[in-house]
Amino acid sequence: GYTIVERAKSGVKDEDSGAVHRKVLYGHSTMSGARRGTKIMTDLIDQRVGRRAVLVGLGATGALALPGCSTLGGFSFTDAIRRMLLLSSDRAFARMLGDGGYWDDAVGQLGLANALGTRGDIVSRILTSGLVKNRLEGAFADIAEVGAERAAPLVADTVRTIGIQNAIDLVRGGPTAATEFLRGNMGQTLVEAMVPELGSAMRVAQEPLVGQLLSSLTGVDVGGISRSLSTSVDNAIWKEIGIEESGIRADPGSTNDPIIMGVFGAGGLL
After folding, report:
1. What is the pTM of this model?
2. How many CB atoms are closer than 10 A to CB 236?
């Protein structure tokens, strides 16, 4: 099957192709969650590796200072923001798609009824034991991961192409200023992209408890549940990207990126 980046490059969309590309839900995984998460983010990062040395060299000479961008000392603030967002999203998705059980914890903490936007009494009729609860939460954790996989390349592509007119304000802003800017510009893009993915994942999930839960939701359509779950995943994605941005601002040296360190470091340009 296609990796996320291969699908993005080829223009193949699951809803258009009719194909189902799943690695966890359907029992056809050929690699562990850790390897899958690492490969996804490696694919995203590898697209930039070939030009990283060139970018660093250009940054040192000031060639990255685009016309109309605010610059100082040869650094482009716009490029610094873009690099920070790329790295923040890379780190966030690597953690969310790795083998650390991120979505198991996230679904458990939020509560299944809240994650699905349903009434607690409906879900409680299904959760007759701790084992059932664990199985059902695990199934929806896998479904949530499908949404994150769909979102990852959309975030990366937007970071690379978005216009950043107020780079200096974002540099001077709070711990998650750049993340908030990016989210504001993307709006409901991730939610809209995840809804059909999650709807399909719920319909074909091998865990029979998922079907039992859906059939119990009288008067609630799968599309509505998909949108509620997509919104929950969307909120989690932006929270994690913001956490990574805060970490980079607090310790820009950890990035080993000369432009990020030059702009956000202790001896930074602002």
Report:
1. 0.73
2. 22
